[in-house]
Amino acid sequence: MKLYVIGIGPGGENEMTLRAVRALEQCDCVAGYGLYLDLIDGLLDGKERIQTGMTREVDRCTAARDAARAGHTVAVISSGDAGVYGMAGLMFEVCQEYPELEIEVIPGITAACSGGAVLGAPLTNDFCVVSLSNLLTPWETIEKRLHAAAQGDFCLCLYNPASKKRTDHLQKACDILLTVRDPKTPCGLVRNIGREGETYQLLTLGELRDTSVDMLTTVFIGNSVTEIISGRLVTPRGYRGV
Amino acid sequence: MKLYVIGIGPGGENEMTLRAVRALEQCDCVAGYGLYLDLIDGLLDGKERIQTGMTREVDRCTAARDAARAGHTVAVISSGDAGVYGMAGLMFEVCQEYPELEIEVIPGITAACSGGAVLGAPLTNDFCVVSLSNLLTPWETIEKRLHAAAQGDFCLCLYNPASKKRTDHLQKACDILLTVRDPKTPCGLVRNIGREGETYQLLTLGELRDTSVDMLTTVFIGNSVTEIISGRLVTPRGYRGV
To answer: 20 to 30 A Cα–Cα from B2, which one of A71, A203, B25, B222?
Structure first.
């Protein structure tokens, strides 16, 4: 019995890999958050849908598992990559008592890569990916990681920078980075990556601290060598003689 | 004048996005490292090739820029993502004096995501990506970042863990992590991701320290909560009640 966990990338069908499209074609049941199912609606004709809300991930994965056990070929979809804050880990957890279920994870383009491409090339050297959501990770752990990223002069990509209830996490994160990083450090925001209404903005770390963002935004923070080249955010890798 | 920088993902056409395939179709000239051009040979019929060796990135990007200036529609391809240790940053650098060139970066699946999917879901929570190659980054900077990643309890994905000349970098990296991380920490290796002969291996951090790898290998190092679930490497995100 086969269960796919598929990363669909940031937007619609155009941002999926051929491998992901072909796996989805083989499924008769698809589980996902409603917004993400809508993004690939054209690929879901005639398929049963398991649709749950944003914070009902465990229910969704359990329902997908049970559908697979009942004989369906099931895809669980994540936006972006299936692994990076996606459903792949949780599927292994909920399926661990059912060795008859074969799980195949199909990767997708995560926001660090898709948003980076919109801005230029901010993550061309070593980087950290950190989620600012403390729903599943204690805020103290997040702060520890931000301090570590600052110490290591890592470029940063921040997922889930804010929600309706968490409005000051990005400001706190910037304050941690500002303890060691120049307020003029180039940064960028991308909203609705790969979707209708995609927008981006370049700004300094000092400006980012006082900027409001929402949960549809991905944040990029440069390191000590990140620069703006022809209006794009670029972290040079260090090729000499350019 | 249009210049695409395209991430082709880890393997062949199957791992590319539809967007990447369509952009490539519009190009009459394609620049890339020979191995990567070969991976997508079926898409390159009738196109001019700019092919240079592994360490000739500046020459390759300059030649691509000049071909675009001469009227060609050019794609520069990177394996994986175009941004993550890819050619996008360098293209912005070599094109900065030529504002008539419009650069579009098309993201691809980077090895952190494609290799993670092979192993399970090792990067489902916050993680760092670090290259162990000191060709372009001083080794002291790499060591500083490894220390920082260890302090932050980040999962790690290591690119370029070794080459013929650099045989002890992975051992040194493991020794840094072992100053704070349990030698039993689950880790994984994936070689030839998405290509013929793809293999993977799960092992502990202590075992990884004494393992030889090559430049076709991507290394994954778990954090304090990473575990083996049903033979797969998984970092739980922290959903409760599973």
So the answer is: A203
